Amino acid sequence: MYKYDSYDQAMVDARVAEFRDQTARRLSGKLSEAQFRPLRLMNGLYLQLHAYMLRVAIPYGTLNAAQLRVLADIAERYDRGYGHFTTRQNIQYNWIKLAEAPDILADLARVEMHAIQTSGNCIRNISADHYAGAAADEVTDPRPYAELLRQWSSFHPEFLALPRKFKIAVIASAADRAAMRLHDIGIRIVKLAGGELGAEFYAGGGMGRTPMIAPLIRPFVPIDQFVTYAEAILRVYNRHGRRDNKYKARIKILVHELGAEAFTNAIEAEFAHLQTLNIEPPAAELARIAAHFAPPPFDADAPAEVAFADEAVAQWVRANTHPHRHAGYVSATISLKPLDTNGKAGIPGDASAAQIRVIADCAQRFSFDEARVTHAQNIVLPHVRKADLPALHAALAAADLATANLDAITDIIACPGLDYCSLANARSIPIAQAIAERMAPKAAAIGELKLKISGCINACGHHHAGHIGILGVDRKGTENYQLLLGGSEAADTSLAQITGPGFDEAGIVKAVDRATAHYLSQRQAGERFLDTYRRLGMASFKEAVYG
Amino acid sequence: MKILTGNDLRTGAVVWWDGAGWALHVEEAAEVHEAEALIAAEEAARRVVGAYAIEATRDGVAGSLRGIRPAHIKDRIRALGPTVRPDLTLKPADPNCGNWVI
Amino acid sequence: MAEFSFRFRDDADDLGQVADPGITVDAFAAQTNATAVRLEPGDDARALLPHLARLRLVEINFPAFTDGRGYTAARTLREAGYAGELRAVGDIGVDQLWQVRRCGFDAIAPDTPLDPADAAAALGRWPFAYHPAADDAAPIWARRHGAG
Fold first, then answer.
1. Which residues in chain A have their CB less than 8 angstroms from residue B85's CB?
2. Theoretical Cys-Cys bridge with A136: which of A91, A325, A449, B95, CB 3.0 to 4.6 Å?
3. Does residue A293 fall inside a structural domain?
4. Across-strand partners of A494?
5. ipTM for the predicted complex
6. Beta carbons of B12 and A347 less than 8 Å apart
7. C41 touches chain A (CB under 8 A)
8. Contact (CB<8Å) A157/C71
9. pLDDT digits (tens, 9 = 90+) for A286-302
10. Hey, are the CB atoms on A7 and C128 less than 8 Å from each other?
11. What is the CATH number of domain C6-144?
12. Between B96 and A349, whose confidence is greater?
């Protein structure tokens, strides 16, 4: 993975000094809250329901054991002993004191981490495929390109006061494992028949109040111009994005209002101009970065066929591992949606300091010192020898990290909701727990079902992209939950549709049970829930849910 | 009645105007009548950030957070802590406090 | 006009600071003797490109520091070769100074006076930059590969 050179370190260190100075000026009264708020947001610090919340960046979800251990230390020293992994591959701490935030940033800087631009109206964390560098179907590892974009977007002086937040995802396979088309810019690296690399550019996707799937803007930008193309999109957005209405300020609204064709023309004109200015980092810079992402020294003798005598191990391997380009290896998912032996569900995406240290040890021992955070709020160890899976499983099981539920109905994505977030209208975590506990006995029979819960219309739980999506709303002061069906974040991207009137907490759990029971009774061979829904349609499921 | 709530600028802790200063426990909240002027003065003095007025009722009924009950569930969660982590709330020893929120 | 303002130009070449405030973009094209213009956030700086030769001062207004359209306007003008004074006016605080300079402004006249010590610290904070700017040292990627 990428290692800072002295330039990168100098920039992160300067940022810590800057924020320390800004915090001191806020506490002394030199800066008002109105002046300070955008500054602290651009260092990931929110004023939240219970305290300040700090969102630490995990660039394209990749981190190593030393970094994980510092994240655990921060949880214990400055917070209440745990962290929350998010749908944008970051980690959040919920109980932060403003006065201590500069010290936390200094601790992070010592292990090449930061909270730069994880909030605010600027370019946010660049996300990528959590199987990058391991998946057999990728054209190339997308992360060097994500790292180029990270450096390009960091402190970009023209784009620090955008109309609204800006999120970019990069993938390099036909399969979309990063919800790419639901981002402000989505990039798919592709390779032409002659071997030339380029970038497919999508723009104007997003969830929130008005979910939209990004249209294709340009099918092929030569890879040695892709940063310039991204800059062209950002400039058009900064110039023309709406600033009169916060709820209409994302680039998806601009694309929608101009129309994809007029929008594309504006980008192409700006791109033509920018190409004359030599702003693209040279090929040597990409090569320098890519060298950090060279494949690890795989064991050539690692056996491809391994039998697992222990049924618990075998079940976990079947559920939670993904094929690797090297036959003797897999990518293994550590579920942060635990179900204990009594069937009690934990809090989706949360990990205690002790658990984070176990993950660090496992990454170091079993995965060439590398782990990934996924946008489904789980952790992936990308390169695990099949022969090591029993030992890995044992280490995880001892820390309640071995729940075998990847992409099952109990692998729920849930935003923090009203228990933690001042924007929320309803609690999401208790709903996730109740559904997981109710549905656990049927989870194996149901198979793949991506269930996502958001506690408000901002959709941080990505409910629009759920095979089953749940949206919490405030109905005359009471929490109410809407059921949506048929969304997909994969390459067959679709937006979930609402079924009908909302439910209370008990009602939404029953509604999910009825929807899945209908699927089980109607499915044809090989169909997932999503497939049966697409075949039968909303009317069929609506009747099953509402009776 | 109206009461004021906000966060402590330095620590971020949820606080409630108690008539003279900012208290950590909602049961100490005092009724206010000049909310806007008070908020402006306290924020300018940096004794609070993000302060706002809410409706609440005097709730002398059973429940360990008896005394003042914010009208909206969001503020009851702010008063107590996350309902999904009773150990992190202001009343970790009280198994019934979650019921007070709902 | 603020009491404290910042100017980074060498006026030996260009006959000194322009004292008159700029007129609006709409009026500028018609007034062929005018040499100073003022852009609001909604103005398109590209409308000035045919007139760069007679411009000595462009003021770009930031009514709110959170509205960053002025940064694009500034870069657009510098990229087109505008070499006159480019002045940021309005709601500019100490914490915006660095990006204001990097976008090509060489004069700053904020509504509220800036603390000179805070301003100097802000302007001297960053040893390097990831991005190229017209009159600045090489971006980090250039330094890495010998074009320092």
1. 347, 419
2. A325
3. no
4. A488
5. 0.95
6. no
7. yes
8. yes
9. 999 999 999 999 999 99
10. yes
11. 3.40.50
12. A349
